[in-house]
Amino acid sequence: MPRPRKFVESDVVSSASEVFAVHGLAAATLDDLVRATGLGKQSLYNAFGGKRELFLRALSEDREEATRAVSEALGHDEALPLERIRGHLLRMAIEFSSSDRRVSLTTRALVESTGEEDPLSTTTKAGIEQLAGIYAQCLEHAREHGDLPEDANVQSLAVYFVAVTRGMELLGRAGVGRGVLTAVALDALRVLHGQRMEEADDFPPTRG
Amino acid sequence: MPRPRKFVESDVVSSASEVFAVHGLAAATLDDLVRATGLGKQSLYNAFGGKRELFLRALSEDREEATRAVSEALGHDEALPLERIRGHLLRMAIEFSSSDRRVSLTTRALVESTGEEDPLSTTTKAGIEQLAGIYAQCLEHAREHGDLPEDANVQSLAVYFVAVTRGMELLGRAGVGRGVLTAVALDALRVLHGQRMEEADDFPPTRG
DNA sequence: CAAGTTTTTGACCGGATGGTCAATAACGTA
DNA sequence: TACGTTATTGACCATCCGGTCAAAAACTTG
Questions:
Q1: Record: contact B208-A173, CB cut-off 8 A
Q2: Which residues contact B64 (CB under 8 A, 6 or more apart)?
Q3: Fewer Cβ atoms within 10 A, N terminus or C terminus of chain B?
Q4: Residues of B in contact with A101 (CB under 8 A)
């Protein structure tokens, strides 16, 4: 019997995500969000609770999406585990060097969080650990396949790849171009081989 | 004949840096800055022009300091070029896993900048290139020393290290501890060797 | 069609924010 | 010691912010 909502929650969160990705949490105004979502201030408030809570929702969505994407890229596939990581990193290099000025909400949350207890921090940290877990799983498969030394530290390598990805994101934001970012990704992958990897055939040759 | 200033500019910029490092640009209030620097609002305004301009000054200082530090760490020394990079990365691992919640102004500027034309962006990008240049120089020495393959792409490796450093900073901010961060640094360094490097003797063994 | 529940709307609010102004103080110089 | 110049001080301001309130609207069910 209650009056039904005129909006779909997930759509609203999506629109809000966009705003936050462009402006960040502190710099985004409630007005920006109202304009982007099409909801009234009060409706927003009823449904989510406030700017910060809405950001948190968006952050969770971002985290889930990132997890899903990496999971898909590194998960069961025809390609060998190490090849999947390679493909993923190269894809990230392209994504991060795209022209839009967005920064992942995860990174934003990390930077804009006010302390370790901040939900922004805890959510983000959990997300990072989850991501590392996925990498670790894939690396473990590689090790079992004999594509990685028996004594390789799969856990720290996993975190390493998360770090590299984050760094690439920041560099992309700084304006580093696709070619360089791709070269960086290929460099990063050398950790897995000891020997230099064959050049990517679908990407331009690395340049400084 | 004019009344002399009661403060030293560089001190003020330093104090402001602290505030910005903790709160960021958008979240830092003029009041925070007034309190931290000890100057009155108007004096601040006279000397620097406003919050953003003051941040820019702080950012430049941060950039110079970072450049100086890396330059010193990778520059002329007794140690071999590759050993210097190793030492620097390990030192960064410790610094980034320290308990204070600070984020470098460079990273903040990157995230809080409003566009490619934003002075925050241009300054940061220049800083990154400068940093990469220092790495490149060191790597070039290593190559001449025969410690790096003749065909190693020194330029992209340099950017790679900047990316890794940035990523480590973010992970440290997320609460990743010293042990893990050190392991990540050691992983990152494997790029240079092809073979696994000897474990650091002055650091705890890596763990996931 | 009336009751009941929840959303929506739009006006409203206290407070904080970045920035400004005008008066005063402090200093070097003549 | 008086002057000119600049720094400092503290009050002041318009605006915008996140958030709230109360009334109207919309829909389902009985």
A1: no
A2: none
A3: N
A4: 115-116
